[in-house]
């Protein structure tokens, strides 16, 4: 009886559960999945298109000097009730046409944008964005209230 009967456990040994080896968990598939997710989200994410409007920061006396001494400078006043171009009421489209005409004659046309007190920043940025799209490279933005102080 040395064959199959001898290899069977007898008594209490038969009731014990066999010793199981714990499977080894490999980190390689986990790292692969995380890397694939990272690449997916990087490619699927839409990054914001930040546009920059270049402005000359005027010195304290620069806005007054630009408007009174230099007749080539266009002055755009952004008010709560509309826009004014060199003191005359105008729409943004009229200003765009005049600026385009001036840029054909003088490529370095200077423009001063003066928001009135209480005007939302978005209105001033809309004007600046339109000027930048037209190709104006010399823009200056005066402080709110500087228009009232000069007049």
TrEMBL record:
<dbReference type="GO" id="GO:0022857">
    <property type="term" value="F:transmembrane transporter activity"/>
</dbReference>
<comment type="similarity">
    <text>Belongs to the ExbD/TolR family.</text>
</comment>
<keyword id="KW-0472">Membrane</keyword>
<keyword id="KW-0653">Protein transport</keyword>
<dbReference type="Pfam" id="PF02472">
    <property type="entry name" value="ExbD"/>
</dbReference>
<dbReference type="InterPro" id="IPR003400">
    <property type="entry name" value="ExbD"/>
</dbReference>
<keyword id="KW-1003">Cell membrane</keyword>
<protein>
    <submittedName>
        <fullName>Biopolymer transport protein ExbD</fullName>
    </submittedName>
</protein>
<keyword id="KW-0813">Transport</keyword>
<dbReference type="GO" id="GO:0005886">
    <property type="term" value="C:plasma membrane"/>
</dbReference>
<keyword id="KW-1133">Transmembrane helix</keyword>
<dbReference type="GO" id="GO:0015031">
    <property type="term" value="P:protein transport"/>
</dbReference>
<feature type="transmembrane region" description="Helical">
    <location>
        <begin position="30"/>
        <end position="50"/>
    </location>
</feature>
<keyword id="KW-0812">Transmembrane</keyword>
């Amino acid at each position: 009886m040395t064959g199959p009967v001898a290899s069977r456990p007898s008594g209490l040994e038969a009731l014990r559960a066999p010793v199981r080896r714990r499977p080894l968990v490999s980190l390689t598939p986990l790292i692969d999945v995380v890397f694939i997710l990272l690449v997916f989200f990087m490619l699927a994410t839409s990054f914001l298109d930040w546009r920059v409007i270049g402005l000359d920061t005027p010195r304290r006396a620069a806005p007054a000097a630009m408007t009174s001494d230099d007749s080539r400078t266009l002055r755009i006043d952004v008010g709560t009730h509309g826009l004014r171009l060199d003191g005359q009421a105008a729409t943004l489209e009229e200003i765009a046409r005049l600026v385009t005409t001036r840029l054909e004659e003088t490529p370095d046309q200077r423009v001063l944008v003066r928001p009135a007190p209480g005007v939302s920043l978005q209105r001033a940025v809309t004007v600046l964005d339109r000027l930048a799209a037209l190709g104006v490279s010399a823009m200056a933005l005066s402080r709110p209230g500087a228009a009232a102080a000069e007049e």
